[in-house]
Amino acid sequence: MKFRLTLFEVRHEPAGQKRIPIPPCAIRDQLSLVSAQEGSVGKQGFVAAHSWWGDEEIEAASRIESEIKRLNLRTIRVAWGDQHGIVRGKNVMAHDFLLALKNGIDFQTATLFFDTTNHMFAPMFSGDAGIGMEALAGGPDAILVPDPTTFRTLPWAPNTGWILSEMYLSSGEPCPFDSRGLMRRTLKKLSTRGFHYMAGLEVEFYITRLKDPMHAPEQSGWPPDPPIVDVIAHGFQYLTEERQDEIDPILQILQDNIEGLGLPLRTMEDEWGPGQCEFTFDPTLGLVSADNMLLFRTAVKQICRRNGLHATFMTRPGLPNFFSSGWHLHQSLCDTKSGENMFTNNSRSKEPLSLLGNQFMAGILKHTPAACVFSTPTINGYKRYAPQSFAPTKITWASENRGALIRVLGGPRDSATHIENRAGEPCANPYLYMASQIIAGIDGMDKALDPGPADASPYESNKPLLPRTLMEAVAELNDNQLFRTEFGDDFVNYFLALKQSEIDRFQAYVTDWEHREYFEVF
Asked: How crowded is residue 272: how many other Cβ atoms within 10 Å of its Cβ?
């Protein structure tokens, strides 16, 4: 049986309405235009074809269109956390964003080959892209698939929405170097054991006043000259109300916007250095904790810049009187059914942690040398590890001691008991930092590892030193079989090559110290 489609154009004429058939060529042109528009964003039907969404995502997606209309949103930022935890993405017009919810959106895989300042660390145009992956040779487009549950509006950017995404190859396979996808897969391994991962954030950073953005062409190198800044307040009055009130105007702006994003802000505190702040967040489950960290950092930098300020999450800025900043990761496991905190010791023993908590902590301690590449991924970050500095130097644990690598908070029968890893730097990729903790902790549980006794004096302990440089940590990760097994050789080799690129550039750079040390005397 054959059907013939005939379209009519209705024209209003003095004598009334008259139906005029549209020529077949015009029909074909209109259908072709619709098809072209449908396929102009991402890959048609990509999300449904590969079943990337569950019921929660499908339900959230159904609400987004009405939200866009209700709030009169014009632009949606489709965001993606890259291998460094830096937010990249595209600004998509609202009408095309609705297509992106079905098709995903095309995105450059060349970004996977950038080190911290967009130097390409591998020959992308070779047959295997220099990293053993023919699928990435030449920098083909990948597809970013938005996660509808992360959709929100940006309070500081008028008529603008924001949504997180994960990267997939055009074949439909997950990109093996997508860090959010890696954490998602790690959480699934944990859930098969009946546990959820819970994390709270404690993040230190600096706010400075922008004097000169250094935007002259000769200052826009690779990397560009850093901005010239002033302090917004004197430091060295830790947690004083006067210092905090001095910077209160920007803190109020940050609070309004961060709470406007729906992030669970807990406290804002004045730290040691001039303009150094610490923001803490209530604990949340799984991916949400890492997503919150990613959004928090990019939000702070954008909001400060719009207010004539410069915020930095660099660990140890090269400025006089600036202390190091850290990211203390608070973490525990809870039962997927009851929600019970599995780190709480409900036995009669005086141990601060449950047996499961001890095993999880022991796994983290065992694999810390390799995991430092994820918790402290920059050359600069290792300058923070110094005795008597509130930062760890050795692989130790203790109850309520801020000199230890792992600090246990709480105690027997305390339902809020958890552990705090104090090794992290505030610019770490949150997905890799947290995923490395989970994988190491699972290994401790599976092997029933024992962390040994607590260290009363962590800095005087005879326990092994933390890696003193990124170079040492890279060597540890290269030899660590657990991360190679769980993250995959492809990912570990990729990340090692990425870090080696930064190391090589650093080692080729003649520092001021070298010039001052050798130029005259020799």
From this structure: 18
Q: What are phi and psi of 344, to 5 degrees?
A: -75, 130
Round to whole Å and give the CA distance between 454 and 296.
34
List, for residues 348-390, the tens digit of each pLDDT value.
889 999 999 999 999 999 999 999 999 999 999 999 999 988 9
Report field, pTM of the whole predicted structure over 0.85: yes
Superfamily of domain 46-177: Glutamine synthetase, N-terminal domain (3.10.20.70)
Compute the distance between CA of residue 309 and CA of residue 250 in angstroms, rounded to an integer: 9
DSSP 238: T
CATH homologous superfamily of 186-518 equals Glutamine synthetase/guanido kinase, catalytic domain (3.30.590.10)
Backbone angles phi, psi at 429, to 5 degrees: -65, 115
Q: Which of 290, 291, 286, 284 is nearest to 264 (CA)?
A: 284
CB 374 within 8 A of CB 492: no
Exposure string (b/e) for 376-410, b if CB count within 10 Å is 16 or more? bbbbbbbbbbeeeebbbbbbbbbbebebbbbbbbb
- Concatenated DSSP letters of 424-454: --TTS-HHHHHHHHHHHHHHHHHTT----S-
